[in-house]
Design goal:
- The protein has helices at about 5-40, 40-75, 80-105, 120-145.
- With about 150 residues, it is an all-alpha fold.
- The protein has one domain.
- The longest helix is centred in the N-terminal third of the chain and has 35 residues, at about 5-40.
- The protein is elongated.
Length: about 150
């Protein structure tokens, strides 16, 4: 016997994770381009500095929330322990890269034009890429997750 509630919970988790990564990608790519295009340099530097700080905080908080959900659900899921550990590790790695990126974020005095350092961009890219790998791992197991359920006697 299998329960569809776990499949629905996993599908909801996947949709929320996709929305979260989509929002981070949009905030990282589209918003700065619009700000630079429509404002002068004196106006957009403090705005971009504040924008980057809020995007990084959102990334860290969201990553921690997804890590906590993965960790709490790993004990109650029918997935094998090794696979659940991989999901928790991926979401934890995503959180760590976003946190390190937040810690290396330059202040306005260090970056008067509001631009990020290359290392910060690489860390954000790594965090988003790790989130995409997490989505792929979840999507991979979703259709076949019923094979992990013990058969009814």
């Amino acid at each position: 016997m299998y329960h569809l509630s776990e499949a629905y919970a996993m599908a909801t988790f996947i949709c929320l994770l996709c929305g979260y990564l989509g929002a981070l990608t949009f905030a990282s790519i589209a918003v700065p381009r619009l700000v630079v295009k429509h404002l002068d340099k004196a106006a957009y530097a403090p705005l971009l500095s504040m924008h980057w700080r809020s995007v990084h905080k959102l990334a860290v908080i969201g990553g921690l929330a997804f890590t906590a959900v993965c960790a709490l659900a790993s004990g109650k899921t029918a997935l094998p322990n090794a696979y659940a550990l991989m999901l928790v590790s991926l979401s934890g790695l995503m959180s760590i890269t976003f946190y390190v990126s937040l810690q290396t974020l330059p202040t306005l005095s260090e970056s008067p034009d509001g631009k990020l350092k290359f290392s910060n961009i690489i860390l954000v890219f790594t965090g988003i890429l790790t989130g995409i790998v997490l989505i792929a791992a979840l999507v991979y197991v979703l259709p076949g997750q019923f094979t992990f359920w013990p058969t009814a006697q």
